[in-house]
Fold:
Amino acid sequence: MPMSEPNIQEAVRQKYGEAAKRAAGGGSACCGGGAELSGCDPITKNLYDDSEKAGLPEKAVAASLGCGNPTALAKLQTGEIVLDLGAGGGIDVLLSAKRVGPTGKAYGLDMTDEMLALARENQKKAGIENVEFLKGAIENIPLPDNSVDVIISNCVINLSGDKDRVLREAFRVLKPGGRFAVSDVVVRGEVPANIRKSMELWVGCIAGALEETAYREKLSCAGFGSIDVEPTRVYKVEEAREFLEAAGLNADIVGPQIEGKFISAFIRASKPASAAACCGPACCS
Ligand SMILES: C[S@@+](CC[C@H](N)C(=O)[O-])C[C@H]1O[C@@H](n2cnc3c(N)ncnc32)[C@H](O)[C@@H]1O
Structure:
């Protein structure tokens, strides 16, 4: 039976609360099927270049649990207001704040207390002032309509039990002409449910990645235009072999059904310049 939305949120909160404590204690925030089967590599590996990491507190880098580098791809401009959905230990918020400079601002939204505490500690250590971490759910963003230039997010929307609502909320808080520039795990094409679940657990700790066409449709229904899905990493069966086999799947047999279908992608869309705060066409659920 699929988990209800409050149950998904609770499971996610618990998982990332533990990850935050590990990172705060000087360890790696890596998650996955269990401590012995780290789901971190190759998903979170080599996302940031050395110059980006050098200017950040060690614990902000250690807490990185993303699957892309949205800040680098979003073409942020001086003075812009950025919102990071599911900011975690704050790595992308701090990088965004540097890019938009003191006349801009970067907000980081997260629902997990331990992550917020870690992010605020990282902000303090980095000495960056144009940052604010907010507590809340990405399904109910605590910011006014038309208040943000760019929404970024790094491997979080796949975790939500109500992605339509997340996208509607993102649309609402963006200013007309504002950009959605998000890294996320995406599935390309059909994959049998049991195999999909194991791969998603490997990639994203808790299942929930959208199929590419569905992602595009949901963005369009929320009101977005100029939608683009650019693969940034394609996962290989070999990389997930150990994890799949621990889940009782024979990687040699299921391999051909999944090869090339699980990707990290950079997803771009924009709120039309003439759009009202809310909402997309009537097709939205
Ligand atoms: C995979 S981690 C990514 C963290 C960060 N973006 C990064 O790149 O390191 C997911 C984060 O999103 C937060 N999160 C997950 N679902 C959320 C939701 N529905 N509302 C708010 N935060 C959420 C978790 O607490 C966690 O900090």
Strands lie at 32-34, 37-38, 81-85, 105-110, 131-135, 148-154, 174-187, 210-211, 225-234, 262-270. The chain has eleven helices and ten strands. The pocket of S-adenosylmethionine is lined by residues 9, 12, 16, 64-66, 86-89, 91-92, 110-112, 115, 137-139, 154-156, 159-160 (CB under 6 Å). Residues 31-39 have pLDDT under 50 and may be disordered.
